[in-house]
Design brief:
- The chain is of the alpha+beta class.
- It is 35% helix and 26% strand.
- The protein has four helices and four strands.
- A four-stranded mixed beta sheet has the order 1-2-3-4.
- A hairpin with a 2-residue loop joins strand 1 and strand 2.
Length: 129
């Protein structure tokens, strides 16, 4: 499932990279958490998320790092279920917001996101290290 996510974004990923992410997910002390959607033992989607500090509002929010639904499960509200589960987790933790980014051309997912969340005015920048 995670390899499918990397392939969707045309990102090279090694087994060692997947092992690292898996070790984060299996470590209760890690800030990275994960959820899967499944039916009848078949994985339909995944979400990775974590808390982040919001100094300007003196609060904690949640960042949805990864959300992926298998192509055959799209259109079945799997993304809705995963996002709502992250939202429920955030509410239980006292978070003030759930935030994520997506590719500008991820049109199908953005239809879901526009229905469930508010598009912000912020633009994202990266510095490669």
């Amino acid at each position: 499932m995670y390899q499918g996510y990397a392939t969707f974004y045309k990102t090279s990923q090694t087994e060692a990279m997947r092992d690292t992410v898996w070790s984060w997910l299996m470590d209760n002390a890690s800030p990275v958490k994960g959820l899967v959607a499944e039916m009848d033992g078949r994985l339909l989607g995944l979400a990775h998320f974590r808390a982040f500090a919001r100094p300007l509002s003196a609060s904690i929010g949640g960042f949805l790092d990864d959300l992926f639904v298998s192509p055959e499960a799209r259109g079945q509200q799997v993304a809705d279920a995963l996002i709502n589960a992250v939202r429920d987790h955030g509410k239980a933790q006292g978070w003030t917001v759930i935030r994520w980014i997506t590719a500008e051309d991820n049109y199908r997912a953005r239809v879901v996101y526009d229905r469930l969340a508010e598009k912000t005015r912020w633009t994202t920048y990266d510095i490669k290290l």
